[in-house]
Amino acid sequence: MKKIILLGSMSLLTLSCGPDDDDNTVLDNTNPSLQSVILPVKISTDGESMKINYDGTKILNITNPTNSGDKIIFTYSGDFVTNIKFYEDNILQSATSYTYANNLMASATNTEYSNSGAAEYTVIHTYTHVSANQINAKRQVLHGPTTNYVINSVYNYSGGNLVNAPGSGSGTSNGVTTNYNQVASYTYTDKSYPFKNVKGFDKIIYNGDMSDGVSYMFSNLKNNISSYKETVSYTSPGSTGSSYTAYKFTTTFSSSGYPLYESRQPTDLNGNPTSSQPEIYTYEYNQ
């Protein structure tokens, strides 16, 4: 089930800003069709569909109608999301916890688990809010006793959306140290991100780590991404190299400006589609 939400093996370092929605309704909060804002109620990919359940504009969980053990559980403290947990067949696969300070996100910690329940690796993001258009981020990856990576990045914004995220750092694995430099850049449509009206998501910094299944799907993105590029160069004793990742997003929107169908096609350095099949996502809404 987690593959339904995961967006591939891309690793970015990103964020955007989204509006805060105050839910003052006195209607039946378990029914999203009674809300005055647009909320996604179903997301589908790879022939599988997940139902999104709410309390007002807060997400309670996302469930697989044909397998109750496949689910994503959300925990709130007031209007802040403090934890998101993924389960497959009732086995915890990953958990992301969030902390806040002065009404802003201070940290996000994602841990991936094996089916036996053992923690396989942990990614910790800590944030320093410099201005409305800049956040400094430290990304630390812990993978066993001999592997530790730290990348420091600057998230730069324009018009409420992240435009680029340069970063650098180093990692040590089995006693070998590698230095990294990377930059990710983004373009956007003028249409809405599907989860922009969900309570608390406006505070969740989009750190761009698409491999954890949380950061892209559940974050403070304002507009839908239209393209993404990332270049990483590395140097280690006796070795240098670089890698390049890019996606082009082709999206069909509703009359209200929310995505209904989205294709995320990997491209080469020149923007041409690769032989990899695109990731296809479809959405349904409460109105």
Could you characterize what this model shows?
This protein has a 16-stranded antiparallel barrel with strand order 1-2-3-4-5-6-7-8-9-10-11-12-13-14-15-16. It is an all-beta fold. Helix content is 1%, strand content 59%. The N terminus is likely disordered.
How many β-strand stretches? 16
Question: Helix fraction?
Answer: under 10%
Strand order of the largest sheet: 1-2-3-4-5-6-7-8-9-10-11-12-13-14-15-16
The overall pLDDT average reads 86
Q: Could you state the oligomeric state of the chains shown? A: single chain
Which spans have pLDDT < 50 for at least 5 consecutive residues? 1-28
Distance between the termini: 26 Å
What about the largest sheet? 16 strands, antiparallel, barrel
The portion of residues forming beta strands comes to over 45%
Order of helices and strands: HEEEEEEEEEEEEEEEE
Shape summary: globular
What structural class is derived from the secondary structure elements?
A: mainly beta
- Individual helix count: 1
CA gyration radius, whole angstroms: 19 Å
List the SSEs and their pairings.
Layout: H1 2-5, E1 40-45, E2 48-55, E3 58-64, E4 67-77, E5 80-88, E6 91-101, E7 104-113, E8 119-131, E9 134-142, E10 147-158, E11 161-173, E12 176-192, E13 223-236, E14 239-253, E15 259-266, E16 279-285
Key terms:
single chain, mainly beta, 16-stranded antiparallel β-barrel, globular, disordered N terminus
Offer a concise description of the structure.
This protein is mainly β.
